[in-house]
Amino acid sequence: MTGIPIVDAGMRQLSATGWMHNRARMITASFLVKDLLINWQWGEKWFMENLVDGDPASNNGGWQWAAGTGTDAAPYFRIFNPVLQSKKFDPDGNYIRKWIPELAHLPNEMIHTPWESGIVIPGYPGKPIVDHGLAKIRALEVYKLSKRREN
Protein backbone atom coordinates (compact mmCIF):
# COMPACT_ATOMS: atom_id res chain seq x y z
CA MET A 1 0.00 0.00 0.00
CA THR A 2 2.63 2.51 -1.09
CA GLY A 3 0.23 4.48 -3.27
CA ILE A 4 2.48 3.81 -6.27
CA PRO A 5 0.36 1.41 -8.37
CA ILE A 6 3.20 -0.40 -10.16
CA VAL A 7 5.01 -1.06 -6.87
CA ASP A 8 1.83 -2.19 -5.13
CA ALA A 9 0.92 -4.43 -8.07
CA GLY A 10 4.33 -6.12 -7.92
CA MET A 11 4.12 -6.68 -4.19
CA ARG A 12 0.59 -8.07 -4.47
CA GLN A 13 1.69 -10.41 -7.24
CA LEU A 14 4.58 -11.66 -5.13
CA SER A 15 2.35 -12.11 -2.11
CA ALA A 16 -0.33 -13.98 -4.08
CA THR A 17 1.84 -16.14 -6.34
CA GLY A 18 5.38 -16.23 -4.98
CA TRP A 19 6.62 -14.71 -8.22
CA MET A 20 7.15 -11.24 -9.69
CA HIS A 21 8.16 -10.17 -13.19
CA ASN A 22 11.80 -9.05 -13.39
CA ARG A 23 10.90 -5.48 -14.37
CA ALA A 24 8.56 -5.24 -11.37
CA ARG A 25 11.36 -6.65 -9.19
CA MET A 26 13.71 -3.88 -10.33
CA ILE A 27 11.11 -1.12 -9.92
CA THR A 28 10.10 -2.40 -6.49
CA ALA A 29 13.69 -2.88 -5.31
CA SER A 30 14.63 0.62 -6.45
CA PHE A 31 11.58 2.09 -4.69
CA LEU A 32 12.24 0.26 -1.44
CA VAL A 33 15.97 1.00 -1.39
CA LYS A 34 16.13 4.46 -2.90
CA ASP A 35 12.74 6.10 -2.27
CA LEU A 36 12.16 4.59 1.18
CA LEU A 37 15.85 4.14 2.14
CA ILE A 38 15.19 0.59 3.35
CA ASN A 39 18.32 -1.54 3.77
CA TRP A 40 18.62 -3.72 0.66
CA GLN A 41 19.29 -6.76 2.85
CA TRP A 42 15.78 -6.51 4.34
CA GLY A 43 14.25 -6.59 0.87
CA GLU A 44 16.56 -9.39 -0.24
CA LYS A 45 15.61 -11.48 2.81
CA TRP A 46 11.87 -10.89 2.37
CA PHE A 47 12.01 -11.73 -1.32
CA MET A 48 13.96 -14.95 -0.65
CA GLU A 49 11.34 -15.97 1.90
CA ASN A 50 8.53 -15.37 -0.61
CA LEU A 51 9.88 -16.16 -4.09
CA VAL A 52 9.14 -19.62 -5.44
CA ASP A 53 12.03 -19.13 -7.88
CA GLY A 54 14.31 -17.58 -5.28
CA ASP A 55 17.96 -18.17 -6.13
CA PRO A 56 20.40 -16.90 -3.49
CA ALA A 57 22.98 -15.60 -5.96
CA SER A 58 20.49 -13.98 -8.33
CA ASN A 59 18.33 -12.47 -5.61
CA ASN A 60 21.27 -11.18 -3.60
CA GLY A 61 22.98 -9.81 -6.69
CA GLY A 62 19.80 -8.15 -7.92
CA TRP A 63 19.26 -6.35 -4.63
CA GLN A 64 22.89 -5.22 -4.53
CA TRP A 65 22.54 -3.96 -8.10
CA ALA A 66 19.40 -2.00 -7.21
CA ALA A 67 21.05 -0.56 -4.10
CA GLY A 68 24.19 0.53 -5.96
CA THR A 69 26.47 -1.77 -3.97
CA GLY A 70 28.29 -5.00 -4.77
CA THR A 71 30.64 -5.98 -7.55
CA ASP A 72 28.29 -5.38 -10.51
CA ALA A 73 26.17 -2.59 -9.09
CA ALA A 74 24.16 0.02 -10.89
CA PRO A 75 25.56 3.45 -10.15
CA TYR A 76 24.20 4.67 -6.83
CA PHE A 77 22.63 7.63 -8.60
CA ARG A 78 20.47 5.38 -10.82
CA ILE A 79 17.07 5.74 -9.26
CA PHE A 80 14.10 4.37 -11.15
CA ASN A 81 11.15 6.72 -11.45
CA PRO A 82 8.32 4.26 -10.75
CA VAL A 83 5.72 6.29 -12.64
CA LEU A 84 7.86 6.59 -15.78
CA GLN A 85 8.73 2.88 -15.54
CA SER A 86 5.04 2.07 -15.17
CA LYS A 87 4.03 4.15 -18.18
CA LYS A 88 6.82 2.68 -20.30
CA PHE A 89 6.42 -0.98 -19.42
CA ASP A 90 2.67 -1.15 -18.61
CA PRO A 91 1.31 1.63 -20.84
CA ASP A 92 -2.31 0.43 -20.78
CA GLY A 93 -2.18 -0.42 -17.08
CA ASN A 94 -3.06 -4.09 -17.60
CA TYR A 95 -0.62 -5.33 -14.95
CA ILE A 96 -1.89 -2.74 -12.47
CA ARG A 97 -5.53 -3.58 -13.24
CA LYS A 98 -4.89 -7.27 -12.67
CA TRP A 99 -3.25 -6.85 -9.26
CA ILE A 100 -5.02 -3.74 -8.00
CA PRO A 101 -8.68 -4.21 -8.85
CA GLU A 102 -9.53 -1.03 -6.92
CA LEU A 103 -7.95 0.89 -9.82
CA ALA A 104 -9.30 -1.25 -12.69
CA HIS A 105 -12.00 1.28 -13.57
CA LEU A 106 -9.54 4.13 -14.14
CA PRO A 107 -8.68 5.24 -17.67
CA ASN A 108 -5.15 4.60 -18.93
CA GLU A 109 -4.07 8.20 -18.39
CA MET A 110 -4.99 8.01 -14.67
CA ILE A 111 -4.00 4.47 -13.72
CA HIS A 112 -0.32 5.23 -13.13
CA THR A 113 -0.94 8.32 -10.98
CA PRO A 114 -4.42 8.06 -9.46
CA TRP A 115 -3.60 10.64 -6.77
CA GLU A 116 -3.34 13.34 -9.42
CA SER A 117 -7.04 12.96 -10.25
CA GLY A 118 -8.14 14.06 -6.80
CA ILE A 119 -10.75 11.31 -6.62
CA VAL A 120 -11.07 9.06 -3.58
CA ILE A 121 -10.60 5.38 -4.35
CA PRO A 122 -11.98 3.20 -1.55
CA GLY A 123 -9.36 0.77 -0.27
CA TYR A 124 -6.42 2.50 -1.93
CA PRO A 125 -4.13 5.28 -0.61
CA GLY A 126 -5.08 8.81 -1.60
CA LYS A 127 -1.47 9.67 -2.36
CA PRO A 128 1.92 7.92 -2.36
CA ILE A 129 3.69 7.42 0.97
CA VAL A 130 6.60 9.47 -0.40
CA ASP A 131 6.99 12.06 -3.11
CA HIS A 132 9.39 10.44 -5.60
CA GLY A 133 11.02 13.75 -6.55
CA LEU A 134 11.83 14.61 -2.94
CA ALA A 135 12.79 11.01 -2.14
CA LYS A 136 15.23 10.98 -5.05
CA ILE A 137 16.95 14.14 -3.79
CA ARG A 138 17.15 12.66 -0.28
CA ALA A 139 18.54 9.35 -1.56
CA LEU A 140 21.23 11.09 -3.60
CA GLU A 141 22.30 13.11 -0.56
CA VAL A 142 22.41 9.99 1.64
CA TYR A 143 24.38 8.03 -0.95
CA LYS A 144 26.81 10.92 -1.54
CA LEU A 145 27.41 11.19 2.21
CA SER A 146 27.95 7.44 2.41
CA LYS A 147 30.44 7.53 -0.49
CA ARG A 148 32.37 10.35 1.21
CA ARG A 149 32.62 8.31 4.41
CA GLU A 150 34.07 5.36 2.46
CA ASN A 151 36.90 7.49 1.11
Structure, described:
With 151 residues, the chain is mainly α. It has a single domain, classed as DNA Cyclobutane Dipyrimidine Photolyase, subunit A, domain 3. Helix content is 58%, strand content 0%. The chain is built from eight helices and no strands. Helix 2 (22-35) packs across helix 4. It is globular.
Report the portion of residues in β strands: under 5%
**From the alpha-carbon coordinates, what is the Rg to the nearest angstrom?**
16 Å
Helix content: 55-70%
First-last Cα distance: 38 Å
The assigned CATH architecture is Orthogonal Bundle
Question: Which fold name is given in CATH as the topology?
Answer: DNA Cyclobutane Dipyrimidine Photolyase, subunit A, domain 3
| Mean model confidence by pLDDT | 92
Low-confidence stretches: none
Q: What is the topology?
A:
Blueprint: H1 5-17, H2 22-35, H3 40-50, H4 56-67, H5 82-89, H6 94-99, H7 108-111, H8 132-150
Helix pairs in contact: 1-2, 2-4, 3-4
Describe the structure concisely for a colleague.
It is built from 8 helices and no strands. With 151 residues, it is mostly helical.
